[in-house]
Amino acid sequence: MHFPFLLGSTGTEGKMKVSFKMNLLLELLGFLLLSEMLFCIAQGNVHYYDFVLKESNFTKLCSTKSMLTVNGSFPGPMIRAHKGDTVYVNVYNQGGYGVTIHWHGIKQLRNPWFDGPEYITQCPIPAGTNFTYQVLLSSEEGTVWWHAHSDWTRSSVHGAFVILPAEGTTYPFPKPDEEQVIVLASWYKEAVETLIDEALRYGGLTTLSDAYTINGQPGDFYDCSNETTYRMSVDYGKTYLLRIVNSVMNTDMFVAIADHNLTVVGWDGSYVKPLEVSYIMITPGQTMDVLVTANQSPSHYYMLASPYFDGQADDFDKSITSAIFQYNGNYTPPSIPVYPSNIPGFYDVPAASFFTTKLRSLASPEHPVDVPLNVTTTMFITVSIGMMHCPNDSCAGPAGNRLASSLNNISFANPKLDVLEAYYRHISGYYETNFPDKPPHLFNFTSDDLLTDNVTISDQGTRVKVLNYNETVELTFQGTNVMNSGENHPIHLHGFRFYVVGTGVGDFDNVTDPLTYNLVDPPEANTVPIPKDGWATIRFVASNPGVWYMHCHFDRHMSWGMDTVFIVRNGNTEESTILPPPAYMPPCETDSLNGPRQSMFQKEE
């Protein structure tokens, strides 16, 4: 077995190498003990990456700040592999606080130890130490991504994860001439860790971003930015595959290129029937594979990413980031690039709904669907923004309360020991297995007068849902307008890809709405938008034993408690049993960002 990350070639200082020594030895022991098993699991090629987490200086919007990055880049490095490969990523934490990394959209079959969400499947990697992730690729194909899963650290710690077709196969569409990763992100002038610490400490609104970026650059419409606008050079007549990742913290985005149609061919690491559109709507957490042909007169054309917001609070960053889709060749460039006339406005709900309801799986012999038909477990989950009471009305939220968010009126609290460790070692006291299958009471979820304590005040707890292996699960998410705060919520489920079988507006009707389900070619995804004052239904088979996080991918909502955990029990065979843990896991000693002090949403024992 070959482990190049043990050779010390990352440029780290000698002192850091010494501090890593014990961890590396433990990891090597674990790899050797599991080598025979891993040989059987790793059907494809094996790849190795080094990620060095460290503070780096960046100057944008006329000011300079230091922020945590991987290998000094923003966005971080791209990982490339083929379907079915295995990837090892050794993360050296040279930052000032603990961090974890999540492999978003990768199921990690039977392998929850390396999924990454802090206090769910591991505790943070302490500063001055390292941890090697084993990423097992299975059915994923297309674009997914990786990001930090500790507080709001993913604002600067993220990157694309490209999964090419398996060796000997190809795309289900004409092979593009070239491809380009497009990463959308948020930019904050201030230190993000300070902003989220203050917001959670006082219980009020979180600070909005100062800009959005495309491949790390804000673009022409921000101060001190037009010299560094990202430019994508293209040749006339060529077709390009855009691998688009939305890493924006709290905002859905419309994306368009002036005068160019886009053809969506992939969503969340799976293929879809080609959908030709003039724009896309992509939520935080989602990825899309989009074809664009350079078939217009050679010139400069703006690529824009513009926010979409459907809530009443109107608290979002109302700026637009730009890149330039720039033709090669001899021509006189325009003084100003061509501006998209087709990009929807900030509040264009019909445009967003039109796009999201048109996506369909390929459902072809090479890429079949397997939609669960015989449901054994049904859950109805309300998705709400609310409050929790503060002593003496001392918080910065409405009426002196703390802003909170919830699923079925439960605001999730992080335990001091990660849920996976507690479950696997049979350690009691860190979570409860009573996450409800439905909200505590039913009411008109989309009403405009949901302001009383019986609907606005949520309970706090570390409550999880336990599933038996191979249960067939249907989840219906109901958006609510509690506190007049309804908005679109992108819900992400770790460990699975699910089928989005239905979506609609208003209160879900369990008699008539299931008649509208698409059980023939529904799109397969890992992140689903729940429309404002509407609902969405997903189905999946619980065939991945382990501990799997589910949460809103608006980070402020996740921080406020809009999350829960599924525990999938082992089946009766070795192939349906969680893989054993590695020899070393990061210790559960401190909060990732705030030292030994608990965050406001860590569970008290």
> What is the terminal separation in angstroms?
43 Å
Task: State which percent range the strand residues make up.
Answer: 25-35%
Mean pLDDT: 91
Detail the poorly predicted runs: 1-22, 28-42, 590-605
SS content category? mainly beta
The residue fraction in helices comes out at 10-25%
What characteristic shape results from the CA principal axes?
globular
- Order of strands, main sheet, comes to 10-9-12-17-14-15
Largest sheet, strands/sense/barrel: 6 strands, mixed
Number of strands: 32
Radius of gyration over all CA atoms, rounded: 23 Å
Count helical runs: 6
Structure notes:
By secondary structure, the protein is mostly beta strands. It contains six helices and 32 strands. A six-stranded mixed sheet has the order 10-9-12-17-14-15, with no helix packed on it. It has a six-stranded mixed sheet with strand order 21-20-25-30-27-28. The two termini are 43 Å apart.
Short description:
The chain is mainly beta and about 600 residues long.
Element layout with pairings:
Elements lengths: L13 H28 L4 E15 L2 E8 L8 E4 L3 E8 L7 E4 L25 E7 L5 E7 L9 E7 L13 E10 L4 H11 L8 E4 L16 E4 L4 E8 L5 E6 L4 E6 L2 E8 L2 E3 L4 E7 L6 E9 L12 E7 L21 H8 L20 E12 L13 E6 L2 E3 L6 H6 L28 H4 L2 E3 L2 E4 L4 E8 L9 E5 L4 E8 L18 E2 L1 E4 L3 E8 L4 E7 L2 H6 L2 E6 L37
Parallel strand pairs: 1-4, 3-8, 9-12, 11-19, 20-25, 22-23, 24-32
Antiparallel strand pairs: 1-2, 4-6, 5-7, 7-8, 9-10, 12-17, 13-16, 13-18, 14-15, 14-17, 18-19, 20-21, 25-30, 26-29, 26-31, 27-28, 27-30, 31-32
Labels describing this entry:
6 helices, disordered N terminus, single chain, six-stranded mixed beta sheet, 32 strands, apoplast, disordered C terminus, mainly beta, 605 residues, lignin degradation
